[in-house]
Amino acid sequence: MTRVLSVASECAPLVKTGGLADVVGALPAALARQGVEMRTLLPYYPAVQSKVTVTGTLFDVADLFGGPARILSATSGALDLILIDAGHLYDRAGSIYIGPDGRDWGDNPERFAALSWVAAKTGAEGAGGWTPEVIHAHDWQAGFVPEYLHMMGATSRVGTILTIHNIAFHGLADPGRLGALRLNRNRYTREGFEFWGRISALKAGLMGADRLTTVSPTYAAELMRDEFGMGLDGVMRLRRDALSGILNGIDEDVWNPATDPAIIPYKSLKEKTVNKQALRTEMGLPDSAGPLCCVVSRLTEQKGLDLLLETLPTLLHRGGQLALLGSGEKWMEDAFRNAARDANVAVKIGYDEGLSHRLIAGSDAILVPSRFEPCGLTQLYGLRYGTIPVVALTGGLADTVIHASPAALGMGVASGIQFSPVTADALRGALVQSCDLYAQPAVWEQMQGNAMRQPVGWGPSAKAYAGLYRDVTKH
Ligand code: ADP
Ligand code: GLC
To answer: Which among 13, 70, 215, 362 could disulfide-bond with 85, CB atoms 3.0 to 4.6 Å apart, if both were Cys?
Structure first.
């Protein structure tokens, strides 16, 4: 058994703002089947407190970046957790990243440096008799793990992997905070964690971890290009030999149309239509001849939904409909609310786990027009539920959908529709193609069947992570 500590700022079903949580929550069970014993280190946010069973105290920290902390062991379902109980850092109402003024909490650098510091301490000294052989850090919030391990003199004992779920978020702080963040000033250089005159938690991880991964092979290649690297493409090129792309899977128990308690469970496409009727009733949509398309997404620049606003008239003109669930940037929320004045558009602004399942089960297609998408999970849910993904040709969206090209249709293997470049014109073309294919029931149903048969679980990717853990283990 390889002992691995997974370190992240979110973990489903305990606390979630996006796909990071789904992945962090699914990894332990997927890897248990590969002989990996994984524990997950997470802040003890208020939202987590009611959902876990605390089993003991592992160690105390007298001063964890400004106050005392207690490191707890806990379980939740099959998850084996280590939690950081530090009220001064995590005991806040509202979002885990954003304060009531809509801006990042001012002390986010310290809040997540503390997460990385406790991870490194656990790696260096163990916790309750358990010492990880490998620390698997996720995104910038765990970026300082290799740095602190280095300062604790433990890099020769503990292997490190950093997974990039989204390179757009760097975890920046002003250099005046070097001391507060307990960082080694000598490493505040271009070869270390300095990034254009600021401290970058992500760069610390990118430079320091033994291996880097990202969540799809295409995104791994994109990261080395300046259009996608967000200023870190040079670092990615420098570390290309350490980098690999391992595609995310989905939790096939949570997302299973045959057993999903949030929907009317179905095994056949005929039964799926009952969910469509129920969804139309729930969302107040009339019957229509064209495809019912859904979106479940954060409403941000990344997701390209401004392009959908622009092209919506084409979809509606062809008899299509839109049902959207999302939240994010205010102007986009308002724009979609406005679009919902059309009878064939239904919009729910907010976060709603149950409705996300009902949308994906009841729709004919799911739209993901992202400008960049490291992996993307909703298109995978769509595949599993026989809901055709209509996606931009980028990142994980490129790796998971078989485009309905004439050749793929001819061979009967298509499972979705891809468009490129990511422009309104190309999306318009994809919507027209969707409506045309939907109007040919035999073709559409064949695509749905292909989608539902496409493997979207963790099998091969869990094997790849397990292999990587063995590679970085230090003895
Ligand atoms: P990202 O992590 O960039 O947001 P992903 O596609 O990887 O994109 O993951 C998004 C996850 O968040 C999915 O599980 C999706 O179902 C969920 N999600 C996004 N927005 C909402 C929402 N408004 N309500 C419920 N679930 C949502
Ligand atoms: C990020 C990415 C998304 C990916 C998720 C899980 O939030 O934006 O594409 O699926 O992480 O890895």
So the answer is: 70
pTM of the full structure = 0.97
Q: Give yes or no for residue 332 CB within 6 A of ligand 2.
A: no
Residues framing ligand 1 (Cβ under 6 A): 18-20, 22, 296-298, 325-327, 351-353, 356, 375-378
Helix (H) or strand (E) run with residue 328 in it: strand 321-328
> 44: left (phi > 0), else alpha (psi -120 to 50), else beta?
beta
Q: Which two tokens stand for residue 456?
A: 């979207």
- pLDDT tens-place string over residues 325-342: 999 999 999 999 999 999
A 10 A CB-CB count for 20 gives 24
Which residue in this structure is represented by tokens 């786990």? 353
Which residues fall within 8 angstroms of residue 206, CB to CB, at 6 or more apart? 143, 162, 164, 212, 232, 235, 236, 239
Contact between residue 256 and residue 247 where contact means Cβ atoms under 8 Å apart:
no
* Cα separation, 319 vs 289, whole angstroms: 6
Q: Are 209 and 161 in contact (CB under 8 A)?
A: yes
Partner residues linked to 337 by β-bridges: none
pLDDT digits (tens, 9 = 90+) for 64-96: 999 999 999 999 999 999 999 999 999 998 899
Structural domains in the chain, CATH included, are: 2-249+459-472 (3.40.50.2000), 269-453 (3.40.50.2000)
Report in angstroms the alpha-carbon separations of 400 from 293, 381, 396, 434, 456. Answer: 19, 11, 6, 18, 8
User: How many whole angstroms from 461 Cα to the centroid of ligand 1?
Assistant: 20
CA dihedral 384, 385, 388, 394 (to 10 degrees): -40
Cα-to-centroid distance, 167 and ligand 2 (Å): 10
* Rounded Cα–Cα distance for residues 2 and 15 (Å): 26
Q: Which amino acid is at 410?
A: G
List the end-to-end C-alpha distance of the chain, in Å, as a whole number. Answer: 14
Give the ligand at the shortest distance from the Cα of 396.
Answer: 2
Half-sphere exposure of 193 (CA within 13 A, CB side): 30
Phi, psi of 69, rounded to the nearest 5 degrees = -140, 150
Whose CA is closest to 232, among 214, 246, 210, 216? Answer: 214
User: Residue 138: CB within 6 Å of ligand 2?
Assistant: no
Contact 416, 380 (CB under 8 A): no
Number of H helices, E strands in the chain: 18, 18
State the Cα–Cα distance between residues 127 and 34, nearest whole angstrom: 23
